[in-house]
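Most newcomers find our protein records easier to grasp once they have seen one. The structure tokens are whole numbers drawn from a learned vocabulary of backbone shapes. The record below serves as our worked example for the rest of this section.
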Amino acid sequence: MSKHLTHTKDLSKNEIVTIFKYAKEFLDEKKRDDLRGKLIINIFFENSTRTRSSFEIAAKRLSADVVNLDVNRSSTAKGETLFDTAANLDAMGPDTIIVRHNRSGVPKILSKYVKCSIINAGDGAHQHPTQGLLDLFTLLQKFKTLEGKTIAIVGDIRNSRVANSDIELFTRFGANVILVGPPQFLPKTTLPTTYNLKEAINHSDAIISLRTQTERHKTPTFASLKDYAENFKITKEVIKDKDILIMHPGPVHRNIDIDDEVLEDERCLVLNQVKNGVAVRMGILKFLIEN
């Protein structure tokens, strides 16, 4: 049975620690032969620049062969079902298929139809486990442990697959999580919530700012994103000189999610996340394929 990563819960704490051990070694950005002769297929039914290129670079640094399937030109555009696509891809003998889809649950369903590992690169508003893992890795680089730390997740949490993955991992590793946003952006939850960004920042060691997922809103929730930004943008005025880390899964809506000035601040780890993303995805590929 192949090991899949469709949800953060697919990995035990010990397995995550093993992946992070690999990732630390891979931060040197050197090319390796760990996956030479292995085949990895990227199939993205939803647009992605960073995640797709991050996986491609990760695979190539481990010397794997990578095929990017252009879904717009594939047989799915001609009416082939998702399951036929999966069966046909599986027949080509890949070691891993990396899937992004705008419908929740698709990677999990596909995992039942293939012999190789499936990695979920984001499914609807459900999960984005590799982003959650790289966010956790980035925090642990700075804090060593999340026990006793408080992390504020700010923005469109209800529609965010990143938030779901982050919440599960951060709480499992001992952090307290506060959700911050306007009422229409907050999910039903047992976690503490607030609409007051300044209050949350006063109690937090790190902030994860999220993009407003306007493409997932059935009806407009704000007259404009600037209205949202008035209360929830991360600015120098809000964070002052507090010892706090600022993160964002990207792409950042500049001056809506985070001010330009804060993006240049040394407390902002957005580019660290991108660098760590390649190393963590290398660790995930090595772990899933070799195990």
